[in-house]
Write a sequence for this structure.
């Protein structure tokens, strides 16, 4: 069954939880470079999520595009880090889960708000998507996007290099009137533009919302489109404790929040920052 067919034939689908904060708990610096330097730990985290019964794994390739890598002087090859990210996720998934290639922002603002040209952004996204497709992913997830224009640029880049299904998920800064990103894009605006762009699902993840607040954004997206809605909130609001960022929402409370998102219309659910295998298992038990 293809990934698109799987989405169409299932009522509620479970994705995995956070990778970065799980790496941090292990004492590692968060990021895709761990695909190269700590592949076993990345593989182990993927396997922990599969053991929870999730249907979809997301590759550890967030922001692993050329613009971000070069701007942050990470010293990584785009091909290596993305191909290895795909390999590790697919190895953990086996025949138990689908794998989505993870794509996110370049870390720079696109003109006229910043100095990154749309062409350079497109090329960076297309290069990364090409590597992930070559690595055998079942689809793409473009996530944690705060600028709809950059999200649409990534969407078109993915569609150009591969005929794989694409999910796009925005990060919302508030839930007022259905929610807006920090760049001012409303949930309604995002749903309309992304649906017209040809995605298979539209979502909300990360941002400044807890799971209950995200339920209102899900409802706003649901009111605007008939496409499946994705909800991947953080495990609560971040708190700075002893100079460390902590997400302290319990697995049970997180699962209750996800249940509210499902009631609001979400069909694909998982976790973002601070969520762990325990959080995903709690959601699985609720489902």
């Amino acid at each position: 069954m293809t990934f698109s067919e799987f989405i169409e034939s299932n009522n509620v689908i479970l994705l995995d939880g956070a990778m970065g904060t799980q790496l941090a708990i292990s004492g590692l610096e968060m990021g895709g470079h761990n695909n190269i330097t700590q592949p076993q730990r990345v593989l182990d985290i993927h396997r922990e999520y599969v053991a929870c019964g999730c249907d979809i794994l997301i590759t550890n390739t967030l922001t692993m595009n050329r613009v971000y890598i070069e701007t942050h002087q990470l010293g990584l090859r785009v091909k290596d880090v993305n191909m290895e990210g795909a390999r590790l996720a697919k190895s953990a998934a086996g025949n138990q889960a689908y794998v989505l290639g993870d794509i996110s922002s370049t870390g720079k603002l696109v003109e006229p708000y910043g100095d990154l040209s749309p062409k350079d952004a497109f090329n960076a996204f297309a290069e990364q998507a090409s590597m992930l497709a070559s690595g055998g992913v079942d689809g793409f997830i473009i996530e944690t996007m705060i600028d709809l224009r950059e999200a649409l640029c990534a969407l078109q880049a993915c569609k150009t290099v591969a005929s794989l299904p694409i999910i796009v998920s925005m990060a919302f800064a508030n839930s007022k009137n259905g929610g807006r990103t920090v760049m001012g894009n409303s949930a309604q605006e995002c749903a309309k533009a992304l649906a017209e762009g040809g995605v298979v699902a539209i979502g909300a993840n990360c941002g400044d919302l807890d799971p209950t607040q995200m339920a209102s954004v899900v409802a706003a997206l649901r009111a605007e489109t008939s496409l499946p809605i994705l909800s991947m909130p953080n495990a609560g609001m971040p708190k700075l404790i002893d100079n460390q960022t902590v997400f302290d929402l319990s697995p049970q409370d997180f699962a209750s929040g996800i249940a509210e998102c499902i009631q609001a219309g979400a069909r694909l659910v998982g976790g973002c920052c601070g969520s762990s295998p325990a959080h995903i298992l709690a959601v699985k038990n609720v489902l």
